[in-house]
Specification:
The protein is an alpha/beta fold. The protein has a single domain, classed as TIM Barrel (Alpha-Beta Barrel), CATH 3.20.20. It contains ten helices and eight strands. Strand 4 (103-106), helix 4 and strand 5 (126-129) form a beta-alpha-beta unit. It is globular and about 45 Å long. The two termini are 14 Å apart. Ligand YH5 binds next to strand 5 and strand 7.
């Protein structure tokens, strides 16, 4: 495992992630959540205003900006923690970096029109994620000839394209995209063969936290997936990933610390 492994805390700013109405409440709740994840040991806060869950509906640029920009500004005002912006829209990437984000996390791997050019111009690290299909339909019939090879080839092609557009190699992170157009068996194969990705030239980020592969393995609801998520985070850490994107920061930081202690001993 790497000794610079980091835990990224998930901060969803979608209406379905809040119980209360008003804008002020949403901002306050989001800010408190970011602060508590930082206290728990997160070194990156991933702010997202587009739901990419299976079946989720699309959101306009204006709506996404209205959700994420005030939150990024509020976090930046209180803390110098790294903020990543979970978006595929070039306008949101630009505004988010202007507001204080310093990493672009794109589940569409900079494939939207203009995204690659904007990301290159912004000079920040980018996380390229693999997805088969689109969120609306990606879980209908995911199919691969060789999942590990196909995801790997896609990410290497996207990374090469980024470098051709002037993004330096050390600003490119890759992510196999757990749950994005994959069956539980596909996800398990990717976990098993994560070292294929970590042996590449690029740092690897994984998002496994609470995902539905755990429902299928354990037959438990989303609020009962902590132990399963920690098992996956531990395997990812031992496989050499650089960033683990999670909901449960304290627990994941503890799991990573234990992995580090074992890996550091003679
Ligand atoms: C990711 O893997 N995922 S949003 C369904 C769930 C639980 C969680 C209940 N953004 C990733 O977190 N960015 C998302 O089942 C991401 N990698 C990167 N880089 C989906 C999500 C989730 C979905």
């Amino acid at each position: 495992m790497r000794d610079d492994i980091q835990v990224m805390g998930i901060l969803n700013v979608t209406p379905d992630s809040f119980f209360d109405g008003g804008k002020h409440d949403i901002l306050q709740t989001a800010l408190q959540h970011a602060q508590s994840m930082q206290s728990a040991g997160a070194t990156i806060i991933d702010v997202g205003g587009e739901s990419t869950r299976p079946g989720a509906v699309a959101v306009s640029v204006e709506e996404e900006l209205a959700r994420v920009i005030p939150v990024i500004k509020a976090i930046r005002q209180k803390s110098d923690i790294a903020i990543s912006i979970d978006t595929s829209k070039p306008e949101v990437m630009s505004e988010a970096v202007a507001a204080g984000a310093s990493i672009i996390n794109d589940v569409r791997a900079l494939l939207e029109v203009g995204a690659l050019e904007i990301a290159a111009k912004l000079s920040v690290p980018v996380c390229l994620m693999h997805m088969q299909g689109a969120p609306q339909t990606m879980q209908q019939a995911p199919a691969y000839r060789n999942i590990v090879q196909e995801v790997y080839d896609f990410l290497m092609q996207r990374a090469a394209e980024c470098q051709q557009h002037g993004i330096p190699a050390d600003y490119i992170w890759i992510d196999p995209g757990f749950g994005f157009g994959k069956t539980v068996e596909h996800n398990l194969q990717l976990v098993k063969h994560l070292s294929r990705f970590t042996e590449s030239a690029y740092p690897v980020l994984v998002g496994l936290s609470r995902k539905s592969m755990l429902r299928e393995i354990l037959n438990v609801d989303v609020d009962e997936r902590l132990a399963g998520s920690l098992a996956l985070a531990t395997m990812a850490a031992l496989s050499g990933v650089k960033v683990i994107r999670v909901h449960d920061v304290k627990e994941t930081v503890d799991a990573v610390q234990v992995c580090k202690a074992v890996s550091a001993v003679q």
